[in-house]
Amino acid sequence: MNRQKDRLPARKGNDPGAEEFLENIRAKESRKQRARRQGSGGVWFGLGNFGVVGMSVAIPTVLGVFLGLWIDGRWPSRTSWTLTLLFVGLVLGLVNAWIWVDRERGRIEKEREE
Q1: Residues 67, 69, 74, 75: what is their CA dihedral angle, to the nearest 10 degrees?
Q2: Which end of the chain has less neighbouring CB within 10 Å, N or C?
Q3: Per-residue pLDDT tens digits for 63-74
């Protein structure tokens, strides 16, 4: 086999693709250096974020259940306030988690742009 055929020819001159490629490399290197300075936080940081999202859903749901049980105990009716407020709490918790994750994604995208 001829090794010369396998090698890509060196580019000379002003290649617009090469300049864009170099800019991408510079941006990636800058992000890597910033991540090394800040530290990744490791597994515990990831589990903590997972816990924050989970609790942002769980707390409104549980509060809705307790409020529903209290209302059903005080004023019995055909409507199950426990189930109704469980659903409302779940929806509020999911919206809360969505907002939190969206805010974090925006922060990450902003760091990538810099």
Answers
A1: 100
A2: N
A3: 999 999 999 999
The tens digit of pLDDT for each residue in 48-66 reads 777 888 888 999 999 999 9
**Do residues 86 and 70 touch, judged by C-beta distance below 8 A?**
no
* Phi/psi of residue 39, nearest 5 degrees: 80, 150
All residues at 6 or more sequence positions from 112 whose CB lies less than 8 Å from its CB, including other chains: 27, 31
Three-class SS state of 17: helix
Selection from 94, 86, 104, 108 nearest residue 55 by Cα:
94
Give the Cβ contact number of residue 92 at 10 Å. Answer: 18
C-alpha 13, offset from chain centre = 42
